[in-house]
Amino acid sequence: MFSQLLEEIGATDPTHRAILDPATEEIIAYAPERSVADVDAAVEKARQAQKAWAGMGHAERSRLLLAAADAIDEQAEALAQLLSRENGKPLSGPNARMEVAQSSEWLRATAGFDTPGGVLVDDGKTRATISYEPIGVVGAIGPWNWPLMITIWQIAPSLRMGNTVVVKPSEYTPLSVMSLVHILNSVLPAGVLEVVPGGREVGARISEHADIGKIMFTGSIRTGRAIAAASADSLKRLTLELGGNDAAIVLDDCDPKQIAEDIFWGAFINTGQTCAAIKRLYVADNIYEEMCGALAEIARNVPMGPGTDENNLLGPLQNRQQYEIVARLVDTARNSGANILAGGEPVEAPGNFYPATIVTDIEPDNALVVEEQFGPALPVIRYSSIDQAVEWANSLEVGLGASVWSADRERALDVGRRVEAGTVWINSHAVPDPRIPFGGIKQSGYGLEFGAEGLKGVAVPKVFNG
Ligand code: NAD
């Protein structure tokens, strides 16, 4: 189904790096690994293409972004099949097909936003306006968990604002991203969108390159810090979407049965490998047992297996390293006396499958609570006072998303105002919307993506006064 795409992106040469299916450990294809010199060549192409791209104006660029969205839709099933094999995420549910569909939806939404800027002062004596101009060449460095969607999040606003882009996909999921870029390039002018697959040296070169004016980065806190340091000499603008450890607080007036399904998917979306998923759940004493029971019931019954089986809704961990992190944290919790209410026993089969796991009666400072597990294991912590729950929620260095759950929206908002996070959802979690800005605080990074704020983030402001 996707063999044509693999041929077109040159991923059939067995001397290149083998990419394994995380569900079966079979080789899917071979990814070329590019060098630092290839980065320089790609940046130069993007630099040369940028003036003409900026000169086209918003209407023409938006038209091309809409055409690019159509091109994705035409290849949607092939892309989803490839993504499912390379990343492991199932085709069905909130997974591969959804990710592909959201990628074209995001492009369309971004093509349609009003351009930011306008009149600042006009009082008869002074007239001042602000406009947002292209930066030049943007570097887009991404992770493996939502490789297509995050690439689109980075490139759609950048292109819309008249920048050209050099993309560096994660070394774990290069095939999906190279295919995406290949499809987009069937519509975009040459040089506007370049992709350079490779390891961290490729990312490091992008971070320091003098001809790149902005980095859009999504990934770990550690790498975010390395990029900030490497880009300091050239004073690049940065948007850093880094790690999270999102808290969800369930208030004492909730009906556990009614919210269990939404909480489960808020935590286990993409088999838990989502930056802004629920990673620690604080539940009021009076409904604690019932909430844990309802979540465990779902965890035991959601089908997990190879992504290409239409019935499965949970898949393997994308890579062995991530599997080891999840297994270690659950073992630490078990050894400390916490209760494994569902899952917790690794599956004896090929692939990186770790069962959906609910851990209860766990201390708030347990490693499974305070470290980012980034996988299918949810610690549920009991609280007896809301002040205590808020204090625990705010006790970590990260602040990406959070959510508060209550039958009374005003009560939830009151609590939400006290929670330190870039986004606080009320009675939902991890539902991104192209119109609504998204970004972290504290060590989860800085800069906003999406909507008009996202467009500003990939532009430089210019003020006219007089
Ligand atoms: P990672 O930081 O290991 O890798 C991300 C990318 O950075 C890869 O392409 C990698 O090759 C590149 N890279 C590595 N070293 C580099 C360097 N020195 N300079 C430049 N680039 C370098 O992250 P990951 O393991 O792929 O992703 C998982 C992490 O990403 C989790 O912490 C997760 O929370 C976070 N994440 C955050 C968001 C968000 O929106 N905030 C979204 C998804 C994932």
Automatic annotation (TrEMBL):
Annotated catalytic residues: E241
PROSITE patterns registered for this protein in UniProt: ALDEHYDE_DEHYDR_CYS, ALDEHYDE_DEHYDR_GLU
Family to which the UniProt record says this protein belongs: Belongs to the aldehyde dehydrogenase family.
Name of the gene encoding the protein in the UniProt record: feaB1
Native source organism of the sequence: Corynebacterium occultum
Protein name: Phenylacetaldehyde dehydrogenase
Domain Aldehyde dehydrogenase: residue ranges: 17-458
Top-rank lineage group of the source organism: Bacteria
Keywords: Oxidoreductase
Gene Ontology terms, MF aspect: phenylacetaldehyde dehydrogenase (NAD+) activity
EC number per UniProt: 1.2.1.39
InterPro entries to which the protein is assigned, alphabetical: Ald_DH/histidinol_DH (IPR016161), Ald_DH_C (IPR016163), Ald_DH_CS_CYS (IPR016160), Ald_DH_CS_GLU (IPR029510), Ald_DH_N (IPR016162), Aldehyde_DH_dom (IPR015590), LUC3-like (IPR044086)
Keyword hit for Oxidoreductase: yes
